Amino acid sequence: MDSEDEMLRSLGMESINELFEDIPEDVRIEEIGLPPGKSEMEVLNEVEAVLSKNKSIKEMPAFLGGGVYNHYVPSLVDEILSRSEFYTSYTPYQPEASQGMLQALFEYQSMICELTGMEAANTSMYDWSTAIGEAALMAARLTRKREIIVPRAMHWDKHSVLANYCKGPGVRVRAFDYDKETGKMDTEHLRSLVSDETAGVYFESPNFFGVIEDELDVVKDVSGDAMLIAGVNPISLALLKPPGDHGADIVVGEGQMLGSYPSFGGPLLGIFACLQKHVRKMPGRVIGITEDADGDRAFCMTLQTREQHIRREKATSNICSNESLMAIASAVYISVLGRNGLRKVANECGKRTREAMKRIRSLDDFLAPAFAAEHFNEFVVKSKVSYDAVHRHLLHSGIHGGLPLKSHFPELEESALFAFTEMHTTSDIDRLVWALEGVR
Amino acid sequence: MSYRQARYEVPLILGLEDTVAEEGPESELPESLLREELRIPNLRESQVTRHYFRLSQMNFGVDTGFYPLGSCTMKHTPKILERVASSPKARFLHPEQDWSTVQGALQVLYELQGMLATLGGVRSVTLQPAAGAHGEFTGLLIARAYHEDNGEKRTQVVLPDSAHGTNPASAAMMGFDVIEIQSKEGRVDLSALENAVGEKTAAFMITNPNTLGLFESDILEIARIVHDAGAVLYYDGANLNAIMGRTNPGKMRFDIVHFNLHKTFATPHGGGGPGAGPIGVVDRLDEFLPVPVVAHDGERYYLEYDRPKSVGKVRSFLGNFGVLLKAYAYIKLRGGDGLKRIADRAVLNSNYLSSRLEGVLDIPYNGLRKHEFVASASGLKERGVRAKDVCKRLIDFGFHPPTAYFPQLVDEALMIEPTESETKETLDRFADVMREIVNEDPETTRNAPHNASVKRVDEVAAGRKPVLSFKMMGR
Questions:
Q1: Which residues in chain A are closer than 8 Å to B20, comparing Cβ atoms?
Q2: Is omega for the bond preceding A369 within 30 degrees of 0, making it cis?
């Protein structure tokens, strides 16, 4: 290539190797060790061939939830996310060049505040689990205390991630139990754990078993001066009272349900919102409103003095890259569905769930739901036969059953968590019920 | 050629009136559980489309123009990556699916682990971390577990003053005290390092080439000092784009390596994310990797959980699969030869642009650059022009500004990373524009930008009384 030669010559060099003379001989490598490149067409064919070995949840009814759900993604979400002005930009450090991203993220923050009843939100954490970790650290900063109390009925990944986030500052994690009849939180057990040492109390509603908690005012009372941290499925908030009404200080959750695909678990979207009085202790990027030199409204990143690129080891978090594009997906999703659409999705989830519950309950071998309570979009099914056998039988019938729980909740024995969204048709549920009938 | 960014007044969605009739809620849930109101308008798709379309036009991306944001590697994203990641066979996979139904996805992850291990010169890789900083967090978690397993309580992380801000932040988050050592002529000062490390040191974190774009030629001596102290050597992979095919972190005797897939492997940056920050480790740290590790038994791919010394999980599920899939396709597309050419061209572009800017801006630290270089706008101070003003003025010409005021070693720093994606013509044009800016009426520079969708934004006012949501606007 001529221009490369020209560029080298202008540097007084003959070979590109001269640009690497500062790399000592003894660390140089001869071979990179990877096969040569291929054409776009070849790569596409190859990757598609590998992916074709997957059986997607489009190809079989699947009843998996547990934090990631298959909701319909409107075409407009894909359309906007394919705008490369958005997806090829980076963190909007230069507000004048990036007003579009900044406003869209501000809209996302505003919508999250409406849904959760909080006053401020950041532009995202990596996922729900890391948002819980960050919330625990924020509670410790706010209260200068070193203990966080969480439900035992929580996805095992979250327990593990939280433990790792708490390791650095030495925050202790304790877990409160659930009521074996209702699946709801055991508020008395929680009360016995709260002490002067408690920095924060975390709960989820709907909880891991899909149960809607209805004693949240008691939780606020029990938590006393500790930060009250709520974990939410944002779709449920189209109907349910927002955690802000129950006295929450911080709300976290998974935003994947709002316009992102399940995508084998990533990218996800960690929701993080809080009350105004706590914002200076909050982690992550936040967008604020200001003016430009003409006095016109403008947006920019703000409170950056909390962040790693300014404050280094004194930052509230190390987070830099986050899940901004998924936040845009959420904003578009909420905008295009509107109040009507969001409620409709939430209602449809509920309807499917109750329909499936009723039908599975009528089968001899299954108890559904395992807990006597109001559920949102999933519930625990208890089987009289080995759930592992049920799981394999369903797969054999071209159906993917729920999330097996036994290894993490042995007391629930042969159970699985079955989830339902508006994407499940009546015939999907028929197929599930028929297959369950044929287990023996 | 000058540039004019679109400028629309786009009202906030939450402030819009309904244009679609309300449909009453019909929930079967008990009244006591239900919310009273939901202040989200019912709009037509046409309105919402125009809203976000216009916002996109008020945003500058790599597809818009040259984006020399130092240390961020804002390279072109081949369009095939978006196509690959939008496959229904990737999007419609639930992370809890039975292994037998996701063999393709596990194969992608397994092979990507291998590709990255090769590129890093390390034993094994976890793909779980969602970003570079998350990778640092994970790497330090592993370092901590390793020392504890040896019965040692090491409480400090040492790093140079040129380190990315995430390095000290990650170290602090993992509970370490941060010891910063001063650089000497832009590189690690070996005697300062020798004095700083000891039996309390858990890790020394650096990037090589460093944030000044200089290769740490003493890297083996650095490694010796760190290892003699019993600490681990951590590689911040933000600058990996400079060295592929020439050297690798393992060869430089690093123990832990993170990769920024959104940088080096173009996945792209998504306006701030999603990214992916896989971690690679050498033999003796392998047993501490997060679970699960994607494994292959000769017939099928599976998830290996039986790793008793594992640190556990740093994120739900297996990582940002969509991003990992793009990196996988990118590495196949470019191949070993292509990745080496990328590093070559990235370094050529950087050295070329640096030479073109000589005499225009001060460029401290002589010698070869790698993928980026740091210029200083301090010479413009006497004319009342700051680095920040230069940045804003560049927008008027269709260039995204460089990283400014970092690293702090350089006064009025402008950190410029051209990447391999740019042509000589673009670099020449950038140098010409820079010359024009430093010679123009300072008033014009100070009042820039003139052609962006807004004028100079008052960031200080935003922080004084933060308004972070529609609700905080008093609405």
A1: 338, 340
A2: yes
